Amino acid sequence: MAKQVLSVPRISCQHCVATIERTLGAMEQVKEVTADASTKMVAVTYQKPEDLKVILAALEEIGYPAKQ
């Protein structure tokens, strides 16, 4: 397992949080995800280090590009 905290500047409301948590939470690679609109951060726990690229691509696809 690996954990990463990502900066996601486009998070601005609870709808954003729900969209991110629903999208990432549905991915088999993701074990846990918590998004926070006030800090504009997403904490994600995933299985393998290479899964991070898939997670970042998923965030980009739904309109929330992230930085490590």
Task: Tell me what you see in this structure.
The chain starts with a strand and ends in a 7-residue tail after the last helix. The chain has a three-stranded antiparallel β-sheet with strand order 1-3-2. The protein is globular, with a radius of gyration of 10 Å. It is built from two helices and three strands, in the order βαββα. It is 34% helix and 28% strand. By secondary structure, it is α+β, with helices and mostly antiparallel strands. The longest helix has 12 residues, at 14-25. The model has no long low-confidence stretch (mean pLDDT 97).
Cα separation of the termini: 17 Å
Strand content: 25-35%
Helix content: 25-40%
Mean pLDDT: 97
What would the principal axes of the Cα set say about the shape?
Answer: globular
Rg from Cα: 10 Å
Largest sheet: 3 strands, antiparallel
In N-to-C order, the SSE pattern is EHEEH
Order of strands, main sheet, comes to 1-3-2
Structural class: alpha+beta
Number of helices: 2
Number of strands: 3
Contiguous runs where pLDDT drops below 50 for at least 5 residues: none
Protein topology:
Layout (H helix, E strand, L loop, with lengths): L1 E6 L6 H12 L4 E7 L4 E6 L4 H11 L7
Antiparallel strand pairs: 1-3, 2-3
Quick structural gist:
With 68 residues, the chain is of the alpha+beta class. It has helices spanning 14-25, 51-61, and strands at residues 2-7, 30-36, 41-46.
